[in-house]
């Protein structure tokens, strides 16, 4: 039997939520688990928050999928979804997991490209086998 857990987190920081009210609603990360398969955590449209870190620590996923487009709203001083530094945080927090950066170049307010993220991964010497940036439609098997 497969199990899944919803991990409620906010989109943006507490300051963003205070400034924008209901524009940035609560979002959910999801953990998928099934015996004999990899445990997967999909963080959703959020920044790095205590809830994200807690979900990774609690569920110990084999795969972590994070939206790394570094999306911004012009009136705010920081992003409303994760970016390259957050991919690195996930990598350090879960060194045995495969961390996958997605959701770039797909919306007009995404400020980080796949190429920039790949260059960051190389510069930081993150394990390229465990830190991936797939192209749109690129299949992966785990």
User: Which spans of ≥5 residues are poorly predicted at pLDDT below 50?
Assistant: none
Give the end-to-end Cα distance, rounded to a whole number of Å: 19 Å
| Total count of helical runs of at least 4 residues | 4
Number of strands: 6
| Average pLDDT reading | 81
Which percent range fits the helix content?
A: 25-40%
Structural class of the helix and strand makeup? Answer: alpha/beta
Q: What's the SSE pattern?
A: EHEEHEHEHE
Bulk shape: globular
Radius of gyration: 15 Å
Estimated share of beta-strand residues:
15-25%
Strand order of the largest sheet: 1-2-3-4-5-6
Condensed summary:
By secondary structure, this protein is an alpha/beta fold. The protein contains 4 helices and 6 strands, in the order βαββαβαβαβ.
Describe this structure in words.
There is one protein chain. The protein is α/β, with parallel strands linked by helices and 142 residues long. It has 4 helices and 6 strands; from the N terminus they run E-H-E-E-H-E-H-E-H-E. A 6-stranded mixed sheet has the order 1-2-3-4-5-6, covered by helices on one side. Strand 4, helix 3 and strand 5 form a beta-alpha-beta unit. The protein is globular and about 45 Å long. The mean pLDDT is 81.
